[in-house]
Structures
1.
Amino acid sequence: MKRKVLFVCILLISAAVFAQEQAAAEAVSGTTYPDAVKYLAAALAVGLSCIAGGIAVARIGAAAMGAISENAELSGKALPYAGLAEGICLWGFLVALLILFL
């Protein structure tokens, strides 16, 4: 619970710092606030989906290796599950592309 509270506090502080830096950058470069939010959203989409994909592949890979060590015939059934977990990263990348170009 303490980690969640700490994470939320860090997130709020970083959002406030980002807003201040964005206001200063907007005054200098002319980049609008919605453009900055769009780039931040795309970065979060890719970053969080890759982290989630890595966690999923780690857990599925460990379980698959344990199952294969007991029964070698399960190797063909375990491989698609790891591929599905890696697909999470691709969906995050596609969402980021849609955010940037639409």
2.
Amino acid sequence: MSPAGEKITRDEIESKLRGITGDVTGEVESAQSQAVTVGLAVVVVVVAVAFLIGRRAGRKRSAVLEIRRI
């Protein structure tokens, strides 16, 4: 901080703001990469569940034919 008698310059304000935004930017990038990973995992699980439900429904509706030789 500046002593009481000195004026605060524009450069000092800009450097402080850049320092603050630099810290926040790093945290945002970290959270964003985690969100992408979680999102992809959720999509994979939803697709797998939809596949298994569709497969089960297909088995219920399909007819079983027995072919015997006479």
